[in-house]
Amino acid sequence: MAEPFDTLMAVQEHDTAIDQLRRRRETLEARQALEAVHARRSALATEVAGARVEVEALAARQGELDAQIAAAAARRHEIEARMRSGTVTDARDLQAMDGEVHNLAERQSRLEEEELELLEAQEPLDALVAEADGTDAALAAEALAHEDEVRRADAAIDAELEVLGAERAALAEGLPSELRVRYEALRSRLGGVGAARLVGDHCDGCHLALPSMEVERIRNLPADEFATCDQCGRILVH
Ligand SMILES: [Zn+2]
Asked: Are 218 and 237 in contact (CB under 8 A)?
């Protein structure tokens, strides 16, 4: 192997390292944890908003029930007072009034039962809303810690990327433009690897073995001439 292929392989090594660093930056554990906390905060906000709407609806229904209970109680007391007053003497009238008192008492107790169920349904919603601020504050603190970690990791990776990028640019300038264009085109088409070494009888790009005659032919090429892997199309450096 001779120039410009030493340089080409150095460019490829830099590109591979740069790609790995970028991938590491994107997939940082702290970044994923941060995104998860963001998702939890937004889910909590949605849940709390839903609970508030539900609590309002329950409160409205409770108001209706209170009014209905009060009306039933007032009507019952009114009838009971009339029965006690002695102004109604007809036995059938008294019996009808007694029946109504009985019905009103039953209605009142049904309404009160429903109200009790509403209160029971409201309890967990109230608890959720009451705890939401504390839960969200804890999540916000967690997010801050992750953000800090992400910032530090990003800064370290960015510093490495800057060094590698500058080195890579300087190296690439030393390549003949035709070779560089070919390399870039292959690299963008073949998952970031445009040039590979011939290692034994294998292409180090696609890891497939080449026919022994082809290996022989490539080995005998002049040092300044490159081959192309028949299987993956990459520049094959020997
Ligand atoms: Zn190959």
From this structure: no
> 54-78, pLDDT tens digit by residue?
999 999 999 999 999 999 999 999 9
| Bridge partner list, 198 | 203
Rounded distance from Cα 231 to ligand 1 centre (Å): 5
Q: What is the pLDDT of residues 215-226, one digit of tens each?
A: 999 999 998 888
Q: How far is the CA of 30 from the centre of ligand 1 (A)?
A: 36
CATH code assigned to 26-174: 1.10.287.1700
Q: CA-based angle 191:196:197, to the nearest 5?
A: 160
CA triple 164-167-169, angle to 5 deg: 105
Q: Which two tokens stand for residue 41?
A: 């905060």
The predicted pLDDT at position 3 comes to 87
Within 13 A of 102's CA, how many CA atoms are on the CB side? Answer: 6
Helix (H) or strand (E) holding 220: none
- Taking the C-alpha atoms of residue 139 and residue 40, their distance in angstroms, rounded to an integer, is 8
The model carries a pTM of 0.70
What is the dihedral angle through the alpha carbons of 183, 188, 190, 195, rounded to the nearest 10 degrees?
Answer: 20
What pLDDT, on the 0 to 100 scale, is given for residue 122?
Answer: 95
Q: What separation in Å is there between the alpha carbon of 191 and the centre of ligand 1?
A: 12
Which residue ranges in the chain fall short of pLDDT 70? 1
Specify the pLDDT at position 1.
Answer: 56
Q: In the chain, which segments carry CATH 1.10.287.1700?
A: 26-174
